[in-house]
Structure formats: structure tokens, C-alpha cells
Amino acid sequence: MTTPLLALMVIASLATPVYGGAFNSRQGEVGAFTRAGLCNHLESLYVELEPGIGCLRESPVVERNTCYTSTNLLAEYVLRNICGYRDLADRVRAFLEKYKPGFYDYYQVLLGERVVFPFNATRHEVVGLVQVGGGEVVIKRVVVASDTIVDYYEYANLVALKAVGHAERGELSEAREELSRLEALFDGRGFADKAFKARREELGESLYEAYKLALAVIAHRVAGEEDGAEKYASILQRIKPPATYYTPDLAGSGDLNVETACLAAIALYGQVKIPVAKRVGPPLMLVLAALFLVVALTAVSTTLWRGKKSAPRGRKTRLGSLLIVNRVEWNTATLLPARLPRA
User: Fold this and answer.
1) What is the mean pLDDT of the chain?
2) Which of 87, 209, 304, 339 is the most exposed place for a label (fewest CB within 10 A)?
3) What's the predicted TM-score (pTM) here?
4) What is the C-alpha to C-alpha distance for residues 276 and 88, in angstroms, rounded to an integer?
């Protein structure tokens, strides 16, 4: 028989999340891409590496013992700003500060940090092995290689990230050009890009990647293209159950990894700031020319008004660097009107 004290302890344990070191093999209940479902799922993937420091394992099954710094950057943002799990977000931030990768597979552009184009190839490297309970957690980070990705336009994720990068700079014209390239990869159900075709050839089945839909939503929203954002968001929300991959009939396949869950949360529930276009209105040189003309006309009108009282009629002469012709005196060094002589 349960005593009242024990009952209170049980209730308290259910109400307060305990971030222990043991592996949690369950997947959070995610019936759809809802805010609550995604947040619950992400919380279930957390593992404590040491007191106050932990990370989200990439997925419940496929990569249940691997933490990537790149996707934990996204997770820290989502946990703090979308889920409201500040304590958990602080622990993930401590993890990121400890391993300080500096590069997050270009995802930093989603959080307002500029990246350099063109894209370079990347690879993962192991930066830590941590014993947790009866298992081992592998810490991996992304490293930039020297090879340039010349065919980035064949990969939906890179096209979407490039569109975001241009939009963040206020280059909305360039961002929309990338969105046109993104649309060309869309086949009505998902992005049939180079990765999709290689996977279909290898596995013999068509599996789309859900995170690319989320990136498309984000890219369109940042560029101010709400119709496109709604189109891709509608498809994303119809995938059931939510998963990393999905079939042409929108059936989720496999488990749901951190990358997909975080990008879906940002796309569907994040605050997207639309930048002001950098090139709006006339070109800079035209603006400067117009400004110069206004200044010149103002000076001329001022000197003519003063000249009515003081300028000698019909006088033409040179005074140093000042050229006086037709009652208007010009400084030949700067081509700006100078004062007229007294009449």
C-alpha cells in the first residue's frame, strides 16, 4: 500500500523532468508535427553527459548514441524559444560551449549568422566519447573541407540555405532566384534532388527527406514569399507519422531525428524576421547625382539672390581658382557654386 508521502514523491517525479545519465530508448509521442509533440520528442532524446552538460541524441533508434554539434545548435534554439525548456536549453548550450565547433553545417545562417558562398564540402569527425550509464555517447562535429560544391543547385537543402543567406543580407532578388531553383527540384510531393535520386537507386524506393520541406518553408518566409511557405508547410504537416523520411503518399518512414524535428519546429512555430531589401529604389549613383543637383541649385539660387544687391553688371574676370561667368561664380576645384562678387 502506497503511503501519502510516497504518493507525493511519485506525483512530484512526474511533474518535474529529471535529466539523468541513462539512455532513454523511447521516442516521444509525435502523432503529428505539433509544437507539443515536437518538444516532447526532443526532450526524450536528451542525455546528461556530466552535471549541467548534456546533448540531444540524433534519433531514438538509428543514431541513438550520437550527438551532433550542428543539430544541437538547432535544438538549443528550439528548446529555449519554441518549447520554453530553458533549463534543458542551458544544458545543451553548455555542451556547445564545451565542444566549440565554430561551424554548424551551414545551419548557423538560420539563426542570423552570415556564411560564405560558395558552399564547401563537409565531413564529420569525432571529438568526444563519453561513457553514460551502460553505453557510450559519440560526439561529432562538422568540419569544412577545401572542395567547393559546384553543383549545389542539385541539392534542395543547399539551395534553400543559400536563399536564406541572401535574404539575411537583404538580397531579396538573389534569394528569389534561389527559390526558383528550389521549385524546379520539387515534384509535387517532395524534393527529387540528387540525394533523392541516389537513394532511390540504392534502395529501390522513393523516400523524400522531410527536413527539406521545413527548409523550404523557412526560406520562403524569410524572403517574404508566404504563398510558397504555406504550400510546403501544408505538405510537411500531412506527413504521418512524423519521420525523417516519407513516401510519395506522405507516410512517414523510420524514426524522427533531431535535425528534422528542429527544422520543422522552426518552420512551423518559429518567429521569422523578413529583412528589408538591400536594393530598393534607384541606384546609389543616381541618388548621389540627385543630391548633388539639389545642393548646386540651392547654392545658385542663394548667390543669385545676394547678387541682386551686390554684383557688378557685366563683370567677367578670374580671381585665383574662382571662375566668374554669366553672374555665377564656380570653384574650379570642386565644381560647386561659390559666392558672387559685389555689384
Assistant:
1) 80
2) 87
3) 0.74
4) 34
Q: Where are the domains of the chain?
A: 17-269, 286-338
Alpha-carbon torsion angle 170, 226, 39, 157, nearest 10:
-60
Indicate the helix (H) or strand (E) that contains 128.
Answer: strand 120-132
Q: Return phi, psi of residue 208, to 5°.
A: -90, 160
Region at 105 (left for phi over 0; alpha for psi -120 to 50; beta for the rest): left
Contacting residues for 191 by C-beta, under 8 A, at least 6 apart: 156, 182, 185, 208, 209, 212, 213, 216
% of the chain beyond a pLDDT of 70: 70
Cβ proximity of 241 and 37 under 8 Å: no
Cell digits of residue 313: 553688371
Give DSSP secondary structure letters for 258-306: HHHHHHHHHHHHS-PPPPPPSS-SS-HHHHHHHHHHHHHHHHHHHHHHH
- Radius of gyration of the chain from Cα atoms? 31
Cell 559546384 sits at which residue? 150
Cβ burial, residue 210 (10 Å; 0-12/13-18/19+): buried
